[in-house]
Design brief:
The complex is a heterodimer of chains A (109) and B (113).
Chain A (H helix, E strand, L loop, with lengths): L8 E5 L4 E6 L9 E6 L6 E6 L4 E2 L4 E4 L5 E6 L8 E9 L3 E2 L5 E6 L1
Chain B lengths: L4 E3 L2 E4 L5 E6 L6 E8 L3 E9 L2 E5 L6 E5 L5 E5 L8 E8 L8 E2 L3 E5 L1
Parallel strand pairs in B: 2-11
Antiparallel strand pairs in B: 1-3, 3-8, 4-5, 4-9, 5-6, 7-8, 9-10, 9-11
The chains are: A mainly beta (109), B mainly beta (113).
């Protein structure tokens, strides 16, 4: 399985952008990178995914490096409700998600 | 559309017992995957079902099994429960295949005493 690493925790000021890095250096060429977040041990909530190109949706932006070994999730204007654990990782063959250890993001007023 | 639903939400069992967890996917989704999440091991893939057939399987012992019904609803069963089986069990559904996004249910929290 691909190995994914993320910072353990990160603080962010409300209203500011939050940039969350993810390292997935062993990702295979056809594996998408997925980002989810999880609040209070509820089920993970889908945020965004991408293969090679940068992606943007109503929740966030995803920047993937050209060599695909790392990516950054950008929350453009963090709110208190964005406090959560953020997970990234590839979806491997067999429709199998493999997350890193997650980054605990605390948005402060 | 209603999201993925899982029942029960919480469960307490004792060692040696068995347990059955249920998952109803998003309407129209035919793939259902099961994951185990623990603080120590993180998210681990159990198996995936598609069209009533197990399509992929993770590295779990045979005590963990599942099935899928014709309406795409799925159940997973754990027999001879061990203390280490205490975890959050998550079900995720997707339309069909590898390129589709998986959407998770709220999970079933199982405590084995």
């Amino acid at each position: 399985d691909a190995k994914t690493t993320q910072p353990t925790s990160m603080d962010c000021a409300e209203g500011r952008a939050a940039n969350l890095p993810c390292n997935h250096s062993t990702i295979s060429g056809n594996e998408y990178v997925y980002w989810y977040r999880q609040i209070h041990s509820q089920g993970p909530q889908y945020i965004i995914h991408g293969l090679k190109n940068n992606e943007t949706n109503e929740m966030a932006s995803l920047i993937i490096t050209e060599d695909r070994k790392s990516s950054t999730l950008i929350l453009p204007h963090a709110t208190l409700r964005d406090t959560a654990v953020y997970y990234c990782g590839p979806k491997a063959a067999g429709n199998k998600l493999t997350f890193g250890g997650g980054t605990r993001v605390l948005v402060k007023p | 559309k209603a999201g993925v639903t899982q029942t029960p939400r919480y469960l307490i069992k004792t060692r040696g017992q068995q347990v059955t967890l249920s998952c109803s996917p998003i309407s129209g989704h035919r793939s259902v995957s099961w994951y185990q999440q623990t603080p120590g091991q993180g998210l681990q893939f159990l198996f995936e079902y598609f069209s009533e057939t197990q399509r992929n399987k993770g590295n779990f012992p045979g005590r963990f099994s599942g099935r899928q019904f014709s309406n795409s609803r799925s159940e997973m069963n754990v027999s001879t429960l061990e203390l280490g089986d205490s975890a959050l069990y998550l079900c995720a559904s997707s339309l069909e295949g590898q390129k589709e996004t998986q959407y998770f249910g709220p999970g079933t929290r199982l405590l084995v005493l």
